[in-house]
Structures are given as structure tokens and as C-alpha cells.
Records
---
Amino acid sequence: MERLDKSYLNSLIQNQVEENVELEYKSAAALDNTPQKKKEISKDVSAMANSAGGILIYGIKEFDEEEKRHLPKEINPVIRKNYSKEWLEHIIQSNIQPKISNIFIDPINISDEEVVYRIFIPQSNTTHQANDKRYYKRYNFESVAMEDYEIKDILNRQKHPNIIMQYE
């Protein structure tokens, strides 16, 4: 995975790269050390793994206006000493069952004390349950509870892999 810097984050903001099924922005406040925020972290990360995988960025604030609410407004950095990479990894791995393999947390330095966390979440071949005992998926710009048939479909990814034909 390529290491990124502040210019990458600024390009997302300048180009108004909108959230989608594989990209989500969260402000620094989304990492507050409360049971509700930990529940949201587990919900968002498990939803990405249960869907197509993707990137979750903690430290970019979205616009408050309804018509712009899925667009990045500004860098809203996380205070590293309050929320370390190890703390975030622990929250993710201890609140999602089964644990998600190959999650990569990339801290992007903003200053000596501030950071933005880019989390790469791979698509999984099994379903992952958030700490509220529910299964979530990404749908447009949000994480929503999955239906029974969707859970079964994900479990069948192992049995029926995608085969891509290439012609030379």
C-alpha cells in the first residue's frame, strides 16, 4: 500500500471527491472514546468488509449542508496521543467478530501531534458482525443492516469465486 501525505488529503478536498460505497469520511470526533462511537466504528468497518471493501478516513470533516453532506470540507485531524493507531486497531479488532484480516491503518501526519487515519479494509469472504450483534453493508453513503439473503450471499463468496477471463 502506497504511503500518502497531506497533499493527498488536500486533493480529495479540492477535487470534492464524494463518498461512495468504497470511500467514507469521518471527522476526528468519530473516534471519541465512548460506547456509542465504538459501536459506530465497528458498524462502519464491518460494513466495508461485508461489501466491496474500501477506505475509511478518520480526520476529514464533511459539509453540514444537506446538498453537500457527502463531500469533504476540511482536514479535521485526530490528536495522536489521544487516539493512537494501536488504540484504533484494538477497537476495530475487539468489536468485530470474526476479526477482519489484512486491515491496514495508514497514519498521515498533519503535524507532530496531529494525524489523519486512512484505513484500508479488504472485501471479506465471510460476514463480520459489529458489536451490536448485527451485520451491516455499505449502501450508497451509509452502513445499513443486512437482510438474511445478503448474509448468505457473502458466505457463498468462498464457494463461488469470481473468475475473470483474459484474452491475449
---
Amino acid sequence: MSTRSLTFVKDDTNRVLLNMYRQCDGYPSGIGTELYEFLKDIKMVDGISVTKDNGKVANGAGCLAAQIVTHFKDGPGGVYLHHPSSKDCGQEYEYHITADISGITIKVVEASWTGHRAKTLYQGDLEGFGAFCKKDN
């Protein structure tokens, strides 16, 4: 059986912009590590210049959400987008990414559908998230 996960991207008002379902490798050492590797060098900005090299930036939470989909979706199957209010997809883990000009924070939740109460496994900044995901290996 696959380890399913949901990845939410939220803005600074806690509004869900993305609900991405992944059918397998949803555990922290799987998609968690992949998320960390993708996010670790991204700088959150408010406006971008078209005249200079912007490097690895995201112009707000909506831009970051679009980049995450582009990164993880490489063909049919495996990764799907769900309505932002959809909360039950049989997931075992949830990744709640909040992004704004001050940076990116992540909360990892062990989902409640497995027969017990939802439990927060990690909540904090990207550096701590990377260490948390490595610990899961």
C-alpha cells in the first residue's frame, strides 16, 4: 500500500492556495525530503525585477504554489490537485507550508484517518524541517 500525503500551501492569512495529493512516498523521508531540497534555497519576495537575474525566488505564496506543482508533476498519475477545502484523501501525512515575505514555515501532521487523532510531528522553519526529515530516515 502507498503512503499518501497532502501538501498545502497557504498565504500569510492562512488561506489555502494549493492542496496537492501525492499517491506514494508521502512520509517525511520521501516527499518531506524532496520538499526540503526544493524549498531550501527559495527566497520569498514581494515583486520581481525583469531586468536582473532573480535566482531562485518566489513572488508570494501563489508563485511558490505554482512552482511546487511544476516541480512535482512530471506526467500522468502520482500527483493530483484537490479542492483547497478537501481534507480527506486517505493521506497518512500532511505538509502545511505557509509562505510570505518573511519566509517559509512548515508543519507536518500525521493524519487522523489512520484511526487515531491527528498529531503534529514538526512545526517550524525550513532548516529544522530538513533535520526532521533526515531524522525520519
